Amino acid sequence: MADSSRLDPAKDFPEDLSTVDRDDLDILNSRNHRSRDRQFVEHHEVDAETEGQHHELREELDRRQAIRDAPAEETAEETGERAVRES
User: Fold this and answer.
1) Whole-angstrom distance, CA of residue 3 vs CA of residue 20
2) Whole-number pLDDT of residue 12
């Protein structure tokens, strides 16, 4: 019986993670972590394909986080600049 809670490194992985819905990306990331954990416990190392997928997922999650954080940082900077000019 296949365990769908982990990613199989031999199965298809999305070519372009930027097109994957955020919820699906979180699910892929969780499944990747479970795969990495199991591989390390069973084989004392992580499959190169699984590790590569981990890095791709991290890059995409970091990219999306930077986009979400950017407007908040810009707003705080603009507000601070206006307060300095007004004083």
Assistant:
1) 22
2) 81
Q: Residue 53, Cβ neighbours under 10 Å: how many? A: 22
Instruction: Check whether 42 has a pLDDT greater than 80.
Output: yes
Q: Tell me the mean pLDDT in the region 57-71.
A: 93
Exposed (0-12), middle (13-18) or buried (19+): which is 35, by Cβ within 10 Å?
buried
Task: Supply the pTM of this predicted model.
Answer: 0.73
pLDDT at 35 (0 to 100): 94
3-state secondary structure the chain: CCCCCCCCCCCCCCCCHHHCCHHHHHHHHHHHHHHHHHHHHHHCCCCHHHHHHHHHHHHHHHHHHHHHHHHHHHHHHHHHHHHHHHC
| First-residue to last-residue Cα distance in the chain | 69
